[in-house]
Amino acid sequence: xxxxxxLITGCSSGIGLACAIGLRDRGWKVFAACRQQVDCDxxxxxxxxxxxxxYTRTETxxxxxxxxxxxxxxxxxxxxxNGAHGLPGAVEDLPTDALRSIFESNFFGWHELTRCLIPVMxxxxxxxxxxxxxxxxxxxxxxxxxxxxTKFALEGLTDTLRIEMRDTGVKVVLIEPGPVTSKIRQNxxxxxxxxxxxxxxxxxxxxxxxxxxxxxxxxxxxxxxxPADAVLKKLIHAVESKRPRPRYFVTTPTYIMATLRRILPTxxxxxxxxxx
Length: 276
Known about the structure:
Elements: E1 5-8, H1 14-25, E2 29-32, H2 37-45, H3 58-72, E3 78-81, H4 96-124, E4 127-132, H5 145-164, E5 170-176, H6 184-195, H7 204-216, H8 229-240, E6 247-249, H9 252-263, H10 266-274
Parallel strand pairs: 1-2, 1-3, 3-4, 4-5, 5-6
Helix pairs in contact: 1-8, 3-4, 4-5
């Protein structure tokens, strides 16, 4: 049998790398994309096909996808959009250009790659588009407004796409992790330092007491944090089940927050989320 094929973005570490290794071990042909050439080279040394795809650079989206399609003869079974970064900071301190920047990498690039693949999946009569969202795609937390906004937008667009693709063979799925071991906190530091003028912010003391401590001085795993393999388990079901679920929750906080969002009044939910 010909191995099923999947393109996974953001494979330099964390969820993307764990899923690439796990699916390869299950016999999948994995294209493990990264946004930096050095990471692509490292993954190629591990035996992967590793196209360069940087969501903020349109030319790499097209060249990376072309590389994949040339290797497969023009087909692809699954796209797993995964690569993203954070931009911590209070909403009032977020320059508009900062929001434009994170939307390029966490939303617009995903949309462009997805749109490029839909005609391929339509032509072959089947396909799956899996989006790695977040618990922060349906509840918010302070200091994470930029990331929250990209994931809320992703959820809305993905839900719409899933409904619109009902009359095709293309299935659309959301995976919603909570605290999962990754480098997203470390990787968000350059974006925070570029965009957030916290020293001149009205919340300077709160930055010093809360955000900076969490950002620069990690005290270890978060409560209920799971390894990246926890996402792999959900992805396996999403890509191998005949009838994948529209949504997959991963961690305990994700299940809890989904329940609280349904049962609590907005003010009560705001109080709970403000404690985080």
